[in-house]
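Quick question, first post here. What does this chain look like in 3D?
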Amino acid sequence: MSFIFQQARILNPLEQLDLTGTVTVGENGVIESVVFGNETISTSPADQVIDLRGQILAPGLFDMHCHFREPGQEYKETLESGANAAAAGGFTGVALMPNTKPVIDSPLGVAYIRHHATTLPIDIEVIGAMSVESRGEHLAPFGKFRSYGVTAVSDDGAAIQNSQIMRLAFEYASNFDLLIIQHCEERSLTEKAVMNEGLFSTKLGLKGIPDVSEAITLSRDLLLMHYLEQHKLHDPLRRPRYHVAHISTRESLDLVRKAKSDGLQVTCEVTPHHFTLCDEDLFLAERKGNYIMKPPLSSKENRDALLEGLADGTIDAIATDHAPHASHEKECPPDQAAFGIIGLETSVGLTITELVDKQVITISRAIELLSVNPRKIMNLKPILFKPGEQANFTIIDPLAEWSVTADALKSKSSNTPFLNRSLKGKARGIFHKGRLLESEESVRTIHS
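> Answer (accepted):
Ran it through. Tokens below.
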């Protein structure tokens, strides 16, 4: 039996592809043929034909910033429920942050996740901790991580504060060609703070997080990179690589622009909630818990700067920072709420609704941000629409109109500010590991 994806809009920026065509995949999951044009191809009764007229066949989406909570907090999310949420959102792969309980700061934790992920429908990459227990005091075993296939390290929400430790992290990581992912936050400015510092934090009587706390840590890290580059204090064949997680301010974007123009190997990501919402949305919300996250929802001016960064190419990827929490951790006063929201199942809809439909970016640029670039940043194998390549696809209906409802979410948690929000654009299914997984709605819409 073959799977025949018929009359799809095949869209892959990496190959400069945006053509109508039909892709045939064998039962072993390998692409057998790619035929461009409107003509149909011959099939047998045993073949499964998926009619994709009006829909996009894209390289499988990849989210490089997720939290699945296992091990240690399975009441929020498990590897299985997180994978189901990812597949429902159109992602064929994710990278998991190490802030589990215990922290993934050794190969043992990596092996645990890899073992339990083997039967899941998506790929799971593990991001190792940058320091032991993410305390920022002693570096984790980068070399051992690399031998276990880890390609990136991060202390996620606990940015290393000690500059000497951060310098050593850059030097150590470059020896093994590991990407450093930094949550930029100067914690002395953010202790016990809840939301963006400004008019709305004052009106609510909540302690504010000054947006300069992000730029201070980012500036320190970039200065260290400059220093190491100028003095050649690294393996010349393996220069430091640095990625800014969930960037949220104009000042940070300007620092990234300057670093890129100076030739530093710096990339950054943005979340859908940061390019969609601002601190005024939190102020106006009746239930504020689902608007509490780090970095916080910032000003309208900073949100507009993110849109500019997406349009001009400064921002390299869209990542969800999928952070599940139980209802009691969010349905509480805002100064007691856990930081973070889920995002895997709303990412495509928000990207098309807020960016593509509003002509901030093209749909091709959206696929680049959601699939091509995250894989490139993480040093993962690219996805190609060529015979002999493993099939790894996401099916997207760019015109689908739908509403976010809690009962339809595949995640164990429903902490999202987008409940009951109407969106345009939806992932209809994925094909990966030789399996076709479709959403319930797509069974009616994509089969002929």
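The two ends are 17 Å apart (CA to CA).
Confidence is low (pLDDT under 50) at residues 441-448.
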